[in-house]
Amino acid sequence: MPERDRRIRPRRTTTLRVTEDFDAPVERVFALILSQEGFLDAMPPGVEVLSWPAPFEAGGVMDLRWGVAGRYPVRWTAVIDAYEEGRSFSDLQVRGPFRYWRHTHVVEARGEGTRHTDVVEISTGLGPVGDLAAATAIRGAFGPRLRRMHAALA
Prior knowledge:
This protein is an alpha+beta fold. β5 and β6 form a beta hairpin. It has one domain: START domain (Alpha-D-Glucose-1,6-Bisphosphate, Chain A, domain 4). It is about 30% helix and about 40% strand. α1 crosses α2. It starts with 13 loop residues before the first strand and ends with a helix. It has a 7-stranded antiparallel beta sheet with strand order 1-7-6-5-4-3-2, with helices on one face. It is globular.
């Protein structure tokens, strides 16, 4: 049986939305989320960037590898499938552990600072229980990530 095209959204997905306000201008927050250094700083230890899009724009490819539980190497390839300079971008997994993964990052001015919203749309292929477990783990990973982003922008 041929492998399913992971760029095609399945009928049922789970959506996770995380919003955070930063005391930094939109330009700085957007530059941080586009940068390889900002990405690595926001990720758990052990993530390795094999390739990073330069310039960062629609059609660019991010190729990553890391060890799940410190042991099992996982390769993750995502394509930037939407990009609006200074405002938003989405990365769509084309190779990796999920049946479907699309992560949209949006920044917008909020008073003197910036509101950053992550919208992660996933399907594990393991039904609602698998999606709930994955969404719970992903939500848990956002706390440390957001703390590191605040520190980087201070």
